[in-house]
Amino acid sequence: MKKFFIVGCPRSGTTLLQRILNAHPQIVIPPETAFAELMTRSRRGQAAHWQRVTADLGIDLALPRRGLRGLADARDLYERMAQAHVERVRRHGIAYFGEKTPQHQRYLSLLWRLFPQAKVVLVFRDGRDVAVSLSRQPWMSSDLDVNFALWLHYASIQRRAEQARPSQLHVVQYESLVSTPETEVRRICEFLELDYQPTMLSQSRDFAGVPDWEMPWKAAALGPITTDQIGQWRQVLRQRELHRLESWGGTALRRLGYTLSREDRRRLPPICLPLVYLKSLWWAATRVRFPGHRLAVMPAADIAERKRAFYDRMRPAPIPIDRGRLARRWSPRDGRLLDIGCGPGNHLHHLAPNANTAIGVDVDLPTLEIARRRIEAPNVSLLRYDGTRLPFAANAFDVVTTLDVLEHVSNRPALVGEIARVLRPGGSWIVSVPHRGALRWLSPENLARDFPRCYRMLTRISCPQFWVCAQEASAQRHGHFTASELSALAESQFTLARVARRGGPAYAVAYLAASFPPPGCGKYWASACFAAMAVDYEFPYGPLAYNLAIEFRRRGA
Predict the structure, then answer these.
(1) Separation between Cα atoms, residue 27 and residue 197, nearest integer Å
(2) C-beta of residue 437 within 8 angstroms of C-beta of residue 544
């Protein structure tokens, strides 16, 4: 079988291209093997890496007893791996065995020494979109500058590769691939000397090249081909961040055909690049490696069961949630209230006595069932709806609350627009989110990503609560916000009424303790931690605060 490799900076569309090409009857592409990295590791590291590869490919193939010691050993093992995988999937008439590992772009010279005739399909994407997308992944840094530096590194490798072996390299732009997929796929088939098959662009969800533990962050690439992901940086990046990235990487962006938001690029401060270098070293030293984040992904059914068990233990006493109490003090009495993302009813329990009618909506049905068991007030209704598509008439509510919701929503402008529609002029929108202050690094939801060694130590001596596991499985970073970020999100339809920055070091430590309880400590440990959080929440902490609450007023019609 001939060999070809799909490479590119992570989050550039390599999984989408893998899915498309895997639909060709003469091509088979397994899950990522990172085979080139295998060759660079110690014998012990090779054994751990190969165990992950064989599990993902579903094959039984042993490493050489002495490990991989040269090109001949590596070439023989790769050929046997390819043959074993083709036999397992029972595909006949295979002309190409493909390998999709984005980071192989850093090992192109090694791959061409292994397989001198191998062809390479390189996918590239706007670096601003790549940096934004990488910041949301559980296996990557949350720092925008570190992620953009990674993209610049891959862009420089691309330039050298285009000059080294142009006849064996085909370059594909992600934006062109999703905008005119048939044209681009025909060119790739021509490069591989294969006939184009219309079924390659079908909307069937082909999971063959993606193992289950990667589904949380790769599922979108297995759906219909869409242009929705183009230019996301326009909605996410602040002007200061955008100008910094373009001043730094404007030359690379222009070389690849992308336009800048402004032509008068500012000069970066001298400390900027050394600081990014140090942050990159820190991330490289502490990042989660195989199989670390693989083990962090928990099935949704197990998370739901943990959630039900937790709230069953806590009944009948309500959990003293501090944000709900603050929202109750801020909300007017005897009005119509809508709680978006009500979850198991922690906040709605405190808000309902203030309102004539209280409605809670959430997208998760099992969570709503928990709320129905815990809230027995006659003025409360619970409905299953997405907050971005509400069934209510315009101007229907006096108060709308989104308490601990925005950090979990991807399409925030759509949610804010829907809130403005259902809220009457002059009505209150009360929002609570984690604060992007000095204590954000204590977030238990991001611990597995930011401090993997500390997380692994805690999981050995405790059982993480369901909210920690749910955040890991979502493959999204638990967002933290500043008041200016929320004001910018709401400024077109709301005015700022008041701000509260609450909860300090004691709050953060108590929340961390509640998230990782010691063995044998159940209801009383969690109740004590939540009570400590509620007490500390009453004090303003300014930049040191762990939580941020804001009341907006809808502008008059």
Answers:
(1) 11
(2) yes
d(CA 195, CA 26) in angstroms, rounded, equals: 9
pLDDT value, residue 316: 55
- Give the pLDDT of residue 44: 81
The answer on pLDDT for 127 being more than 90 is yes
Q: What is the pTM for the complete model shown?
A: 0.62
For 21-41, what is the HEC assignment? HHCCCCEECCCCCCHHHHHCC
Strands 357-362, 336-340: pairing kind: parallel
DSSP 58-89: T---PPPTT---SHHHHHHHHHHHHHHHHHHH
- Least Cα distance to 501 among 552, 551, 553, 537 occurs for 537
Q: For 280-301, b where at least 16 C-beta lie within 10 A, e where not — what string?
A: beebeeeebebebbbebbbeee
Q: Which residues pair with 384 in a beta bridge?
A: 362
Phi/psi region, residue 404 (left: phi>0; alpha: psi -120 to 50; beta: rest), is left
- What integer is the mean pLDDT of 367-375? 85
Does residue 282 register a pLDDT over 80?
no
Q: Can you tell me the distance from the alpha carbon of 62 to that of 498, in angstroms, rounded to the nearest whole number?
A: 63
* CB atoms near residue 223 (< 10 Å): 11
- In this prediction, residue 402 carries a pLDDT of 94
Spatial CB neighbours of 262, under 8 Å, sequence gap ≥ 6? 243, 246
Q: Which of 490, 413, 387 is nearest to 235 (CA)?
A: 413
Task: Tell me the β-bridge partners of 101.
Answer: none
**Is the distance from CB of 98 to CB of 146 less than 8 angstroms?**
no
DSSP secondary structure letters along 265-307: PPPPPTTHHHHHHHHHHHHHHH---TTHHHHH---HHHHHHHH
